[in-house]
Amino acid sequence: MGEFAGKIVVVTGGSKGIGESIVRRFWKAGARCVIVSRHPDEYQVLADELKAAGMTVNVLACDVRKVVQIKNLVADTVKQSCRRRFVPGFIKS
């Protein structure tokens, strides 16, 4: 397995560009990824593609300029990781 096997990586701006490349790189290294973006339509397309390729991925709408949304992002990620599995495609606004 990769050096990030069993790890959870949260990638903000992960739906396109550099963020998308980071998600793909961590996945190849064995990580489970949470794709965070303000634009659900953009991250859902990527998440569907990656799930079809066998990646375990979660997506979350979050504006990292808003403290409340960051707190929810962390709480939801911890809650999901404590279940010892990720539910593909959980989405919160």
Automatic annotation (TrEMBL):
InterPro entries linked to this entry: NAD(P)-bd_dom_sf (IPR036291), SDR_fam (IPR002347)
Coiled coil region boundaries: none
A Pfam match: adh_short
Family from the record: Belongs to the short-chain dehydrogenases/reductases (SDR) family.
Official protein name in the record: SDR family NAD(P)-dependent oxidoreductase
Native organism: Megasphaera hexanoica
Record lineage: Bacteria, Bacillati, Bacillota, Negativicutes, Veillonellales
